[in-house]
Amino acid sequence: MKIFGAAFSIYLLFSLVSCEKRIEQHTGYIVQGYLNGVDATTASLYDSDNELTQSVAIRNNRFTVVGMSKDVSLHRLELNDETSTSLDLFLQNKDTIHIYGSLTSFKVYGSKIQNTLATYSETIEGFKQQSWDVLAQAKHLESLRKTLDSLDQVSLTYSISQIKNSNNEELSQLLFESINMDHLSMEGLEKLKLVSESNSREAWLSEINPRIDTFKAISARIEAEKVEQSKRTASVYRPLAPIFTGESILGGSVSLENVLQGKKAVLIDFWASWCKPCRMSTPYVRNHYQRYKNIGFDVITVSEDRNQNAWRAGVAEDQMSAWHHIYDDRMRIAGMYGARAIPHMVLIDAQGRIIQDKISITQLDRELKKIFR
After folding, report:
1. What pLDDT shows up at residue 10?
2. What pairing do the DSSP bridges indicate for beta strands 354-357 and 344-349?
3. 9, 11, 50, 132 — which has fewest CB within 10 A?
4. What is the helix (H) or strand (E) element at residue 201, kind and residue range?
5. What is the pLDDT of residue 17?
6. CA 151 to CA 131: how far, in whole Å?
């Protein structure tokens, strides 16, 4: 599904209105489109069961679809361009929907429910843009995380309010699907669960409940660790390292659990290309990796860069491609390890327990010599 926003174009608006006047009186719905620079020749309309209802030709970047609908129904309009551009349309009789702009930036409006969806999409995009602005300006990980969490809460509150106000099941489903549950806290998931229960949405609950169970399991594990820690001396006890999976620089994903397989020690290095102290320590990390990589040592560098381009460029410049690299979107992994500032390195043993948190290069050298003597 693609939902786009664009600035009003008076010229296009007048063009569409003029085109509409030429359409004979019709008791059903009308969809009028003007897409500048489109290379598609056909616009096809599919119903909620993904059945093709009709196809119309696109001439001079314009097309018109006229049809009938028993009630408000979700349809998908698809163009036969290279990327099969598509968008969702709520259609009902006596509505006229306008689509105008270009393939990369266009606006859909006309009916009450379509206008509601457009306003919602533009508001959510506004929240996302605020997050990117914060990422671009932030200098401290802890304050950055708090600001992003606050924006996530505001965005979720808005989404939930729109779901509550929606009287259309298909619109509610679209609003629910727009929520990124990977960014939700336990509290946020509980709020979404209440809305799902009040709307008797079993499918929604099947997505929410496993995530809540995971949070509970993690909390139970942390509590169990605290109990175990209280029974052991600090010199002997090593806490379990939080298990994580992240996006690899080579594509796919990297998990700490998999990297630990067959290893005697793994170093987690929280790093960023803009962090000079981080990059100054890279040669020492590289030397340790080369020295011990064949006898059970591995490294996972977790990037806190503001974008992936900077991350990839930094890895290439510092010749770090020999080991694992993860892009830490929104400091998720850093939060799991309490990495409030970088550089921050953590040494893990073969059992997945933390040998030392915030380990220095000197301490790392000493610990690796003991492990691999």
Report:
1. 34
2. antiparallel
3. 50
4. none
5. 45
6. 7
What tokens does 368 get?
Answer: 């690796």
Give the list of residues 6+ apart from residue 186 with CB closer than 8 angstroms, or none. Answer: 212, 215, 219
User: Tokens representing 188?
Assistant: 């946020």
Strands 253-255 and 324-327: unpaired
The mean per-residue pLDDT over the stretch 320-337 comes to 92
Pairing of strands 253-255, 245-248: antiparallel
Q: How far is CA 316 from CA 21, 276, 321, in A?
A: 59, 15, 7
What is the average pLDDT value for the chain, to the nearest integer? Answer: 85
CA distance 361 to 52: 63
Give all domains of the chain, ordered by start, each with its CATH number: 10-110 (2.60.40.10), 117-215 (no CATH), 245-371 (3.40.30.10)
Token pair in block for residue 349: 């043993």
Query: What is the phi/psi pair of residue 190, to 5°?
Result: -65, -40
The 3-state DSSP class for residue 274 equals: coil
Amino acid at 61: N
The DSSP H or E segment spanning 132 is helix 112-137
Cα–Cα distance measured from residue 86 to residue 83, given in angstroms and rounded to the nearest whole number: 9
Cα(51)–Cα(341) distance, integer angstroms: 53
User: Could you tell me the two tokens for 351?
Assistant: 């059992």
Distance CA(33)–CA(12), nearest Å, equals 10
For residue 369, the tally of other CB atoms under 10 A from its CB is: 12
97 neighbors 114 (Cβ within 8 angstroms) = yes
